Amino acid sequence: MSIEDPSPIAIDLVADIASSECFIGLRLIRAVVGTVPGLSVDIRWRPFQIDPDMPPEGQDRAAYLAEKCGPPGEVHEVLANLSELAREFGLELAYDKIQRQPNTLDAHRLIRFARNFGVEMAIVEALFEAFFLRGQDIGDRGVLAAIAGRKGIDPELVEAFLSGSDDIGAMKQELSGFRALGVEDVPRFIIAGKETITGVKSIEDFADALFRSIEDE
What we know:
Domain DSBA-like thioredoxin: 11-210
Structural class: alpha+beta
Distance between the termini: 18 Å
Strand content: 5-15%
Radius of gyration: 17 Å
InterPro entries: DSBA-like_thioredoxin_dom, Thioredoxin-like_sf
Protein name: Disulfide bond formation protein DsbA
GO molecular function, one term: oxidoreductase activity
Shape: globular
Low-confidence stretches: none
């Protein structure tokens, strides 16, 4: 398969930084781009919180997993299956390094703030890597500022922004938007405003959806 039209295909990625499936979903998009000659995409981050009622300070990771998945054996099975899926896309998830399940409000605020500097998706990638590969607490503003600094945004500027509250109302409204439409599971991919895919699919199935979106034009 190949793409003759060089125009980027818009992909709205509805996702949360605290979801490993969303991290894998982003890598799925990258994998498809790498396998289809001439394919160009414009990934647009659409924020979602899988746990909108998470306390601001987050929660102990072990307690969180017990609530979500059940006994240790079931937790192990869920994480093992996700780890196996992640490896298909070149990711070695370090679940054992994660100590806290974060509230991702500030992470989403940072992503939105990063649009002003043209590094939105670079920040998304960096946040996923910080949490799932290094076990960093991405609910901590100091951690967020340091991540932003490595992508060229002044850490002090980030800390000042996150300490403010002018954007929080709009951010919460955006976060609740897809849930109000009935979205409960992420990642969700909206391709060219037409095709909608929920969950991580095979590279072939995702590429087919991309081609259908072009054929419908």
